[in-house]
Amino acid sequence: MRVEEQKTETPGIVWLGHSSDIRKMAIRESERLELNQDALFRRVEASEYTPEMRSVYGSADNYKIKGKIIDMSAGGMKLAITQKLEDPLKNGEILLFHLSGASLRENMAAIVLATIPSGKQLNVHLQFRDSNALMRIKLLQFLHRYKKQQVAA
Q: 3-state DSSP call for residue 53?
């Protein structure tokens, strides 16, 4: 809809026209914040993944992928990996990691949506998986605290 004409003599009368240019709007549930935080990740094939794996930290040897969380929202994040991987990451694989500072007892799980080479690093776009309401609240609190710290600095 668009306003075609509005009469000033009689308040409240507006002629509307129908627009043929209709576009879908994407509305974010939460804001995306730049983090630049280092983290270790454990790679799991999608077929082998179970939600119970989030509660098991496992040995440090299992977390072999070193990455930097570039930005994050309540729904996902972008990760930069500079190390050479033996096997390239594939869409649909799961990465487990612990987000320090988020007061979470469990690891977080994220599914690989896209991998984009950029110079000497690999940008990985991830969507969080199997997050319950409590995990989502704690993640939103973490992002809010981080944003307040950035504004104060």
A: helix
Which tens digit of pLDDT belongs to each residue from 98-132?
A: 988 888 888 899 999 999 999 999 999 999 998 88
**Which residue type occupies 129?**
R
Tell me the C-alpha distance between 86 and 134, whole Å.
35
What Cα–Cα distance (Å) separates residue 48 from each residue in 45, 87, 95, 126?
Answer: 5, 17, 12, 18
Helix-, strand-, coil-residue percentages of the chain, each rounded to 5: 20, 40, 45
Q: What is the DSSP letter of 81?
A: E
Q: Which amino acid, residue 77?
A: M
* Right CATH for 33-152 from 3.40.30.10, 2.40.10.220, 1.20.1250.20, 2.40.10.120: 2.40.10.220
- pTM to 2 decimals? 0.77
Please compute Rg for the chain using Cα positions.
22
Q: What is the DSSP letter of 9?
A: S
Report residue 56's pLDDT band, with 50, 70 and 90 as the boundaries.
Answer: low
Q: What is the pLDDT of residues 67-92, one digit of tens each?
A: 999 999 999 999 999 999 989 999 99
- Asked if 75 and 114 count as a contact pair (C-beta separation under 8 A), the reply is no
